[in-house]
Structure formats: structure tokens, C-alpha cells
Amino acid sequence: MVHAIRFARGCLARAAHKLRGSAAGTPPLPVALAAFMPPSGLDAPAARPAPAATPALSDANQHDARQTAPHTVQRYRAIWVSDVHLGTAGCQADYLLDFLKHNESERLYLVGDIIDGWQLRRGWYWPQSHNDVVQKLLRKARKGTEVIYVPGNHDEMARQFDGLAFGDITVREDAVHVTATGRHLWVVHGDLFDGVVQHARWLAYLGDSLYTVILALNRHFNRVRARLGFPYWSLSQYLKHQVKNAVNYINSFEHAMVEEARRRGCDGVICGHIHKAEIREVDGQLYCNDGDWVESLSALVETMEGELKIVYWTTLLDPPAPPRARRRRAALPA
Question: Of 43, 75, 95, 184, which is the most exposed, with the fewest CB atoms less than 10 Å away?
Fold first, then answer.
């Protein structure tokens, strides 16, 4: 308890110091967030071992990012990531951080559920890797990437800032992206078209708790797979897609999303929320879901030519360094 109070006092002191040094008015979002984040140490150079060879995906709309050489950075016109769920044990922060290090874009869309406020209210969980992801996103914004943050249901507290630009990050309830080929795509998280979230919130919270248990089993399952030399595979996603009601729910969600996109005069929709990465035509509209970073470890990208692809990042190009052993302090002479 004493340690927690001291930690909170230190955070508030850093926040006050940084806010006093900023200009009058609303402080930039990077300053407001970084005040509560300890240094990440992301800039330290690290050796990059060669990735394991893996077969390419068969789907033309899917791209195996592991084919990219480890010493190169892939550049895209736009990148969409969603459902990161920072603040939960199920978040695959190391994989997302590795993805962000090896992929650059002119625009970066954060399509909701980046920070899981639901879980953080139940209990605080914030390891260094989650802090590193936040710092990396802020650094991309400072270096010229246009970062657009579209909140979801787990980080809905950010929706009150719709239309405001905090420093280098713009918060939008939704957005319209124009591809290089001239397609207008509506960008939104998608929870507003989820009947359970909107009309049976208690059931959504219950489902979230059960989902957390499944993700815990998923972590142990993949820990065993990693020791046996197998790549990441989502047990939770497999179980979810075997349930007929879940499949029917996903189909209904897709139809509702494209219908609203058509009503808004767009050629399609880009969303997240249901943790199922996909690109396909639905009712004559383009439906794109960028997946998530707790199950599928996927993102949606637009190439410089305007082609949309799903990128899966299930192998680390830069594996995290093993934790250093703490040095014992030398005993003071008597």
C-alpha cells in the first residue's frame, strides 16, 4: 500500500512538472500521456536475428509480413490497427511493438479498444511492454505520421474529445479514408452496431470476463507451442469460430456495417471490434476488418498503389532481450 501511494505521488509530480512547462490552454496529448509513463528505453539499438522461414499465405488479400527482410522497414500509405487491449494480460504488446518498428505509413489509424478501460477498472495491469507501445505510437506521431485515434467501447472515455487535436494525435469518433484508387472507406470501431454492447451491457461485461479466462488459457497453450518450436496460434479464435451462434453474429455485424457505410455514401467500411481480420465484398460493399492484437495479431494496410492487405505478425523479427539480472549492491564496510 505504501509503495502504491509513493508511485502515484511520483506520477502526479511528473505530470505537474510537465504540464507547468507546456503552453497555456489544453496540453498536447503526448505530454498528458507521457507524464504518467516511465522512460521506455526504446531507442537503444538491438541486434536483429534473422526470422524463421515460413510459407506465404494463400489468400491474395493476405500478406505474410515475415517475408520482409529483418533489416528493412516496409512502407505503406496507411495502416489500421485496433483491439490492442493494453492493460490486459492477453495483449500481445511485444508483437505489436515489433510490427510498429518494422512498418511505417503516412497515416496510422487506431481503430478503437487500444487501452482496455474495462479491465483497468477491475485491477491495474501495466507492464513495461504496454508502456513501450504507447511511447512508440507517440514517437511516430512526433516524427510526422498522421495518427488518427477512433475510440471503441473499451476506451469510450476518449469519445468526449471527438474532433479535438491533442498535440500530434487527432481523436475522431469516425473518419473517412480515401484510398489511392479513389475509394471512400468509412473508418469506425463498430461497437455502436453491436446489439449486446448497446442494449445488454451487463451481458457484454459477463462475456468480457469469460473471454479473459479463455485468453489466459490461450497464453499457456501458446507457451507450450513456443517451447516445442511451433508458431503462435489462437486457441480462443478457433473456439469462437466453431460456435454457430458466434458465426451468425459475425455475419449480422458485417451486413449492418456495410449498410451504414452505403447510407453514408461510402464505398465500404474499415472496422475492428469482433477480432476477425477479413477483406471481402458484402452486399456489393467492401468490408475490411483489421483484426486484433490478442488473437489474430493482424493489421490492415494500404500499399502505395492503393491495394488493401491484411498483415499477420505472428513471428518476432526482434525478439525481446532476456531480463537482466539485478546487480547486488556491494556491502558497505563496517
Answer: 43
The pTM of the full predicted model, rounded to 2 decimals, is 0.67
Task: Report the share of the chain in percent with pLDDT over 70.
Answer: 61
Kindly state the DSSP code that residue 156 receives in the 8-state scheme: G
Domain boundaries, the chain: 26-39+57-312
Q: CB–CB of 27/19 below 8 Å?
A: yes
Cβ neighbours for 205, distance < 8 A, ≥ 6 positions apart: 118
Q: Which residues pair with 311 in a beta bridge?
A: 63, 299
The x, y and z cell numbers of residue 169, run together, are: 494525435
Pairing status of strand 146-149 against strand 285-289: unpaired
Q: Say which residues have a Cβ less than 8 Å from residue 163's Cβ, sequence separation at least 6.
A: 171, 172, 173
pLDDT per position as a tens digit, 242-252: 554 555 566 78
* Amino acid in position 101: K
d(CA 156, CA 244): 29
**CA dihedral in degrees (253, 259, 264, 267; nearest 10)?**
100
Per-residue CA distances from 149 to 4, 28, 111, 164, 308 (Å): 30, 14, 6, 10, 20
Query: Which CATH class, in words, describes the domain spanning 26-39+57-312?
Result: alpha beta
Among residues 241, 249, 176, the alpha carbon closest in space to that of 214 is found at: 241
**Collapsed DSSP state (helix, strand, coil) of residue 146:** strand
Do the bridges between strand 298-302 and strand 74-81 make them parallel or antiparallel, or are there none, so unpaired? antiparallel
286 beta partners? 268, 281
- Per-residue pLDDT tens digits for 180-189: 999 999 999 9
Cβ count near 32 (within 10 Å): 16
